[in-house]
Design brief:
Pathway: Cell wall biogenesis; cell wall polysaccharide biosynthesis. This is Glycosyltransferase family 2 protein. This protein is α/β, with parallel strands linked by helices. Helices cover 37% and strands 22% of the residues. It folds into 2 domains: 2-228, Alpha-Beta Complex (Spore Coat Polysaccharide Biosynthesis Protein SpsA, Chain A); 237-294, no CATH class. The strands form 2 sheets. Strands 1, 2, 3, 4, 5, 6, 8, 10 and 11 form a 9-stranded mixed sheet that branches. Strand 1, helix 1 (14-22) and strand 2 (29-38) form a beta-alpha-beta unit. Helix 8 (237-254) packs antiparallel against helix 9 (257-276). The longest helix is centred in the last third of the chain and has 20 residues, at 257-276.
Length: 300
């Protein structure tokens, strides 16, 4: 039986954490530890986590600040140093598991050098939540700038895979949303911590790409299903700007100057067009891209 440690990152998550914890008991796996890492919530997130200790092996960790997703994941993994486990399940508190989800993912993780396995993600109404991505490229950034989210349905020119047919079969992917992913323990030990300089967005991208650099693959398993409420990056200007800025920052780190400049220009073009159409999130993104010293940061 596969032994799994779970890391949940919370930030003012009291309205969803209870349901998340209730969904954790799973068929066919041994949950050795559940670490709830709290980023200085002002609500009852910590109390809700501790109240579940009578039915789950809960450990609560408080970062003392809004440290971001990567830093919280690292803090959770660090507390597992003396634990024995085969894999780590990293999840958002606004996700819920089906009883067989972890078992299916654990079975898929047994393939040699398969380091990350991700489930199909559904919205709360049962509709598909696109979660798989292709490699970031200048061409894809330009395509998404010109035609928007529809690029995901035109061959392979979009980074975000939006065609529902692509989610019906198991497959390898370049990266996937970090809201729900199972990580092989050997991979975690080999490639090290998540990159804490990427606050809130692109940290899962960097982690998956770095895993691939070390010869570990990411696998999508659609028979494992997770429900996900989803965040505010589509409506909150500050969060949207963080998302866009971090995409550009990560691309710059991994490519030469001409490619990075072209990617920046394509991203700025896309956000600029949408800003002219009145989209508040794009106006914030343009401002952040054009004024690096005033780029958004996380605050409590």
């Amino acid at each position: 039986m596969t032994s799994i440690a779970i890391v949940i990152v919370t930030y003012n998550s009291a309205d969803v954490l209870g349901g998340c914890l209730q969904s954790l008991p799973s068929e066919g796996v041994d949950i050795t530890r559940v670490v709830v890492v709290d980023n200085n919530s002002r609500d009852d997130s910590v109390a809700i986590a501790l109240a579940a200790a009578d039915r789950l092996p809960i450990r609560s960790v408080q970062t003392g600040r809004n440290a971001g997703y990567a830093a919280a994941v690292n803090a959770g993994v660090a507390t597992l140093a003396e634990e024995k486990y085969d894999a780590i399940w990293v999840m958002n508190p606004d996700t819920r598991l089906r009883p067989d989800t972890l078992r299916i993912l654990a079975d898929a993780l047994r393939e040699p050098r398969r380091g990350i396995v991700v489930p199909k993600i559904l919205n709360l109404d049962g509709s598909l939540q696109p979660s798989l991505r292709r490699a970031p490229t200048v061409t894809r950034a330009l395509a998404e700038a010109v035609v928007g989210a529809r690029a995901g349905r035109i061959g392979k020119i979009g980074e975000l895979i939006t065609d529902p047919r692509e989610y019906e079969k198991p497959c390898a992917a370049v990266w996937a949303t970090g809201a729900a992913m199972l990580l092989a323990a050997d991979m975690v030990r080999e490639i090290g911590d998540w990159d804490e300089s990427l606050l809130l967005y692109s940290e899962e991208t960097e982690y998956a790409l770095r895993a691939a650099d070390h010869g570990w693959s990411l696998w999508y398993e659609p028979s494992a299903v997770v429900e996900h409420k989803g965040g505010e990056s589509g409506t909150n200007p500050k969060l949207a700007a963080l998302l866009v800025v971090n995409k550009v920052r990560l691309f710059r780190r991994r490519h030469n100057l001409p490619a990075a400049s072209a990617y920046y220009a394509a991203t700025l073009l896309g956000e600029g067009v949408r800003a002219l159409r009145g989209r508040r999130t794009s106006r914030a993104s343009v401002a952040a891209l054009m004024h690096p010293m005033r780029q958004p940061t996380l605050g409590d």
